């Protein structure tokens, strides 16, 4: 198998090896083996290094998170074989200590980004962490590292999220306060961050002058004292503007809005910058935390292999940067809307001569939504395998937008792993005539899949098992109409179990192949995998619709826990497409659907495996009741472990600036999520 060489000959544990480490120190006594390798400074270390003279910057050792390894060898006496072995052992111990330290650091940074919403750079060091904590506590930190309290402002300002109030807190205003409050009156600057909810106003950051005798406040804030009538009235007024529900004091769930597909045209250019600015401005006014944008493989690498056009996306990302919104980017390796966004033209040309690179149903019909997973390791794409094509695309994106990663603007990368960007087979293609609640068809009748199936069957000693089922019905069949999916059908026979296990393992194997390379391309960046909501036929024993999509999850087997065990190895965040009440009750009954039951199984299986999980709405229009169902799913009121979604992606049917009636309750939804 062809091996991707992504790191050259560098040691993955010791990225800056000493080129003289294998030389005998006695042969070169004039060399200083204790001198550590210099590393490129990051964060505040970079600012400090810029002000140093070249000699100082060359000899300085940058400390902090992600810093270089400590040199442990010595140039000391002896020079014998025993001393050399000791030095080698000490080097190995140093590597292990450094690796352990970096693992702890990575978890700390992930926690601060995830639960504290700290805008830390992708490769933050300890200075960045300290600065973020200091700013959170009300301090000011300049670019050169100068840290001080904001105690010399001319006016004492109180800022509320809903309005701006600027008035000096004079002695007449606080004349009824206690003596402790009057002592504090000379110095405080009461500041409430705009992104806090009204229930957080009881926690006020007080900046005070640094002078002898001025101690910290250990009791309640002076603004909350009994005598401070006007200040209390201000707080009560802000509290009263929001209806108190069970969610006002729950966890903060960031909300990201999905940008429309047509923002980038088929030539890779930004079509309407003015319209995009209007939409981003509206999103900013709704206090969304960021936006989600699809990065289409069929557009960026649309015409020639390994010729990437990023100019339109770069212009778009710069606009998003101006509005100070965070960004999640989808690596979209699938088509959208038939001809709206197709796979790359050069891939379609290959498919004309070799149509087996696409998924194929039992009738021999090809599906062009995404590439066949069985070519992940087949060199059929101009000398490259499927996973090499994906990796080259991801690596090019990471290199092109390095500054956005360094600034922390790009907070997560979602990897498209199948049809619609979800981890599933394209078993419900509307172009083939599928309509809800059809069970779909197995997509494994191309020559690569059939070869894999036959090989697996022979390894089990049953070569006649090496073919797909012939009694699994059509796209719009119902489970009871087929011999394979009916009650006590062939799905639960020895052959059925063998086939379904092989079919689902192709899905899991594809996820492993791509995610292993995604972790290399996007080191230290959160990776997201999208899981579909296939809830029809869920009330049957076979769960037929899930089986054709690749999820071996009948009523007598938990297919999601097995999948999530694999995803956990790659530290991914699961995004679950939350089903809505798009269908009537009668339609759900006819389809034997159970959206709530499926959601409960998937979400709790992810939490049980220790995975973070986010959400995305499956339908784009719903009322206040629909909002509450999503909020209840994202933030369960009585979960024993206080589990909740780590983010939520809001899909929109049309540009928000058009004022669609679908968004009458969007402001309410975002406030409740926050």
Automatic annotation (TrEMBL):
<feature type="active site" description="Proton donor">
    <location>
        <position position="422"/>
    </location>
</feature>
<dbReference type="InterPro" id="IPR017853">
    <property type="entry name" value="GH"/>
</dbReference>
<dbReference type="Pfam" id="PF05687">
    <property type="entry name" value="BES1_N"/>
</dbReference>
<dbReference type="GO" id="GO:0006355">
    <property type="term" value="P:regulation of DNA-templated transcription"/>
</dbReference>
<feature type="region of interest" description="Disordered">
    <location>
        <begin position="1"/>
        <end position="98"/>
    </location>
</feature>
<keyword id="KW-0119">Carbohydrate metabolism</keyword>
<dbReference type="GO" id="GO:0000272">
    <property type="term" value="P:polysaccharide catabolic process"/>
</dbReference>
<feature type="active site" description="Proton acceptor">
    <location>
        <position position="616"/>
    </location>
</feature>
<dbReference type="InterPro" id="IPR008540">
    <property type="entry name" value="BES1_N"/>
</dbReference>
<dbReference type="GO" id="GO:0016161">
    <property type="term" value="F:beta-amylase activity"/>
</dbReference>
<dbReference type="InterPro" id="IPR001554">
    <property type="entry name" value="Glyco_hydro_14"/>
</dbReference>
<dbReference type="Pfam" id="PF01373">
    <property type="entry name" value="Glyco_hydro_14"/>
</dbReference>
<feature type="domain" description="BES1/BZR1 plant transcription factor N-terminal">
    <location>
        <begin position="81"/>
        <end position="226"/>
    </location>
</feature>
<keyword id="KW-0624">Polysaccharide degradation</keyword>
<comment type="similarity">
    <text>Belongs to the glycosyl hydrolase 14 family.</text>
</comment>
<protein>
    <recommendedName>
        <fullName>Beta-amylase</fullName>
        <ecNumber>3.2.1.2</ecNumber>
    </recommendedName>
</protein>
<keyword id="KW-0378">Hydrolase</keyword>
<feature type="compositionally biased region" description="Gly residues">
    <location>
        <begin position="63"/>
        <end position="81"/>
    </location>
</feature>
<feature type="compositionally biased region" description="Basic and acidic residues">
    <location>
        <begin position="83"/>
        <end position="95"/>
    </location>
</feature>
<keyword id="KW-0326">Glycosidase</keyword>
